[in-house]
Amino acid sequence: MYLAAVASARQSVAVQAYFSLISPALQDAARGALRRALHDGKPCRGVQGSRPCDICEQVIADHVLASYKKLRAALAGDLPKTRNGDPVREMRTVVEWVTAPEARAENIGRMARLLRRRPREGEPAGLRAARAQLVHHPLHSLEARLRREQAQARGASARPDRDLMTSAWAASLRKDPAAFDLLIDAVLRLRHGSRDLYGFSAEKLEQHGLDLTTARRLLRQALNRLRVLRPEFYMANVVQYLSEGELIPWACREDLSPEDVFTRNEEAEDARRELSAVLSGQSTPERRVLERICAAATKPDAELLEWAAMELGVDVKQAEVRVRELVRKICQADVDWVAERCGQ
């Protein structure tokens, strides 16, 4: 098949030729965005690992078809326009490339291989223009678009930052600029694949003049206010993005009824007394386990149970029982209170 087939009057011929020409390069160019937006940064293995998954294939096919329609319109004289209303010169170059007499002798497989390469000096102007207009331009903001679509499919906001910054219901959250900025930062980090709710960048802490402990406290307070104000927003845009089944449920505390408050205050005092006894030791195994549990509040610790078992000299099941008991006590005593005394 030759390059001129892309401009064939017969749609069946033109579509097949166009997919052969553009699809390999477009798939290469989209791979990184698809990996980050759909597969948590891991390579797409598909069903058997020999081809992309159905979702990735559909995204590629949709984009190839959209750029095909764009080229067919250009071939019919309807060139896309710039913001100033001028015809896009690169698309005119592509039209001239696929309709030139030389296109009848250009092997389309060879052109497809050249399209997959980086631009090189001396390559045909039509090839360079096709790479820009038919491969890279359709993929502009692909990752952001896919993340918005995925979020909406699971009931989350397309733009949670915009909703928080403009919605009347979120006005009270905006009263503390530092806490609100940390909340926006956390929601966006979750949206972009992070599973560390408290993974603040050094620049973000420096921007507000905060240490890590204070930043954690401010964010936790902001999340609690968000949970009360808009529980459905909190569930869809925060909880859903956190890993399920985590051993330490720092971010998901149950709501308290007013009659529970007094009882919980008593439990908090009891928990603080018990944990103070553990913290009084300078470097006991129990204290070291407690310190590592608190560290997991800012960074998930997949090896916590195995490490605790060795530290305490028990098996993993016994270690899990003790770790869960300590987690319960920490939640009762208040995570920030315990973390401060552990020096976290």
Structure write-up:
With 344 residues, the protein is mainly α. It is built from 16 helices and no strands. The protein folds into 3 domains: 3-142, no CATH class; 154-241; 260-342, no CATH class. It has helices spanning 11-38, 54-75, 89-99, 108-115, 125-136, 142-153, 160-166, 177-191, 202-208, 212-229, 231-237, 260-279, 285-295, 304-312, 316-333, 335-342. Helix 1 (11-38) crosses helix 6, helix 12 (260-279) packs across helix 15 and helix 14 (304-312) packs across helix 15 (316-333). The protein is elongated and about 90 Å long. The model is unreliable at 243-259 (pLDDT under 50).
Distinct helical segment count? 16
Q: Give the CA-based shape.
A: elongated
Low-confidence stretches: 243-259
**Could you say which structural class the secondary elements and strand pairing correspond to?**
mainly alpha
Count of spatially separate domains: 3
Helical content class: 55-70%
Mean pLDDT, all residues:
83
From the structure above, extract its key features.
344 residues, mainly alpha, single chain, 3 domains, elongated
Topology:
Blueprint (H helix, E strand, L loop, with lengths): L10 H28 L15 H22 L13 H11 L8 H8 L9 H12 L5 H12 L6 H7 L10 H15 L10 H7 L3 H18 L1 H7 L22 H20 L5 H11 L8 H9 L3 H18 L1 H8 L2
